[in-house]
């Protein structure tokens, strides 16, 4: 724990709400005074089982776009990986469910913890190094997939850290970063991709909390390079983290510009059609052209999910905190439409 870092839950049993400037060393949720809507304290195993965690990692360059996720809902956990080849149009994907999260762990330390999922011959590991400045991702899914990637966050880079209320008695902490660099290798079947920092960009989403029992959101994220070579990243969401704060921002060479509310326009039942997204402050307007999607529906007793994550390219414009208007052309990234009950 570095000198200027903090624990999220304070001495009064409540988390720090709003945008958080200091690094969060630990989301110490077991110290939270979490209660039912009728003000009855929730303790022990019930508190642990009420706490959800997930991480999503995006990796992209001119050749491929990949999504890697680990989700721990306590009653069930999930890992999914997909890799899409822009040139051939081939998509590899694999999703694994694990009852009761028996071999799943996400340490509640955004910049220092490790995470893993293992089941039979499949394994995913995420290890943070250097106070979050490097994340090592290793995935082995049978004989088909091998991923070994490092994602780098410069020391001057400012990730977005937000904690907001969720429903009557819950809260969510999320930490986002986009416009990062990555290097390593991805092997899918007979295809192998070598990723270099010069050409490869990445995004990180680390989220947890006592979330709404039933929720839905839209999300947009991209990472790439501008025409002049500067790194650019974007994170937008609607439907979550909107109580007194938003998780909407863009980065140019690690410098963050906060954005207002995001408006998504799309056809839910035909997500492969063009999407539009803009912010209400007039700082950003984008067209998103999908090239493929990953979708999954799970209806398992008390848990349900209708998940559509579309990948493709963003074109449009943005205005950063310095007032500079910049055109964006074919920046790779994701759009998402998600309903969840957990």
Report what the structure shows.
This protein has 342 residues and is an all-beta fold. The chain has one domain (6-341). The protein is built from one helix and 25 strands. It has one helix at residues 44-49; strands spanning 6-7, 18-19, 24-26, 52-60, 64-72, 76-85, 91-99, 104-106, 114-119, 122-129, 134-141, 145-152, 160-166, 170-188, 191-195, 201-210, 214-225, 231-238, 249-252, 255-258, 262-265, 275-279, 284-300, 303-319, 325-341. The strands form three sheets. Strands 2, 4, 5, 6, 7, 8, 9, 10, 11, 12, 13, 14, 15 and 16 form a 14-stranded antiparallel β-sheet that branches. A hairpin with a 2-residue loop joins strand 23 and strand 24. The longest helix has 6 residues, at 44-49. It is globular. The model has no long low-confidence stretch (mean pLDDT 96). InterPro entries: DUF2804 (IPR021243). This is DUF2804 domain-containing protein. It holds the Pfam family DUF2804. It comes from Alkalimarinus sediminis.
Termini Cα gap: 31 Å
**Percent of residues in beta strands:** over 45%
> How many structural domains?
1
Gyration radius (Cα, Å) is 19 Å
- Helix count, per DSSP? 1
What assembly state would you assign to the polypeptide chains in this entry? single chain
Average pLDDT metric: 96
The best one-word shape is globular
Low confidence ranges? none
Label the structural class: mainly beta
Number of E strands? 25
Largest sheet: 14 strands, antiparallel
H/E series, N to C? EEEHEEEEEEEEEEEEEEEEEEEEEE
The percent range for helix content is under 10%
Pfam family, one: DUF2804
Protein name: DUF2804 domain-containing protein
Organism: Alkalimarinus sediminis
């Amino acid at each position: 724990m570095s000198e200027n870092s903090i624990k999220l839950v304070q001495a009064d049993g409540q988390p720090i709400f709003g945008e958080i400037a200091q690094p969060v060393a630990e989301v110490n949720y077991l110290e939270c005074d979490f209660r039912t809507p009728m003000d009855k304290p929730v303790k022990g195993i019930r508190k642990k089982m009420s706490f959800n965690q997930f991480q999503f990692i995006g990796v992209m360059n001119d050749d491929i776009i990949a999504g890697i996720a680990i989700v721990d809902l306590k009653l069930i956990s999930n890992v999914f990986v997909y890799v899409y080849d822009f040139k051939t149009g081939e998509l590899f994907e694999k999703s694994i469910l694990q009852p009761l999260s028996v071999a799943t762990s996400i340490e509640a330390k955004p910049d220092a913890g490790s995470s893993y999922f293992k089941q039979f011959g499949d394994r995913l590991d995420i290890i943070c190094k250097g106070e979050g400045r490097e994340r090592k991702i290793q995935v082995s899914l049978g004989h088909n997939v091998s991923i070994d990637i490092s994602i780098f966050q410069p020391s001057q880079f400012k990730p977005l850290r937000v904690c907001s209320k969720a429903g009557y008695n819950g809260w969510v902490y999320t930490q986002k970063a986009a416009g990062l660099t990555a290097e390593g290798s991805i092997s899918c079947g007979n295809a192998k991709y070598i990723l270099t920092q010069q050409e490869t960009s990445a995004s990180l989403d680390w989220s947890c909390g006592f979330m709404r029992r039933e929720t839905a959101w839209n999300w947009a994220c991209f990472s790439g390079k501008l025409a002049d070579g500067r790194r650019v990243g974007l994170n937008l969401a609607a439907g979550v983290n909107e109580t007194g704060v938003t998780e909407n921002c863009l980065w140019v060479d690690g410098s963050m510009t906060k954005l207002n509310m995001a408006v998504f326009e799309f056809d839910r039942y035909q997500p492969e059609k063009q999407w539009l997204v803009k912010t209400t402050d007039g700082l950003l307007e984008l067209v998103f052209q999908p090239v493929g999607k990953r979708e999954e529906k799970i209806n398992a007793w008390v848990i349900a999910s209708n998940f559509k994550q579309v990948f493709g390219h963003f074109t449009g414009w943005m205005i950063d905190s310095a007032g500079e208007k910049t055109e964006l052309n074919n920046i790779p990234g994701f759009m998402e439409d998600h309903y969840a009950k957990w």
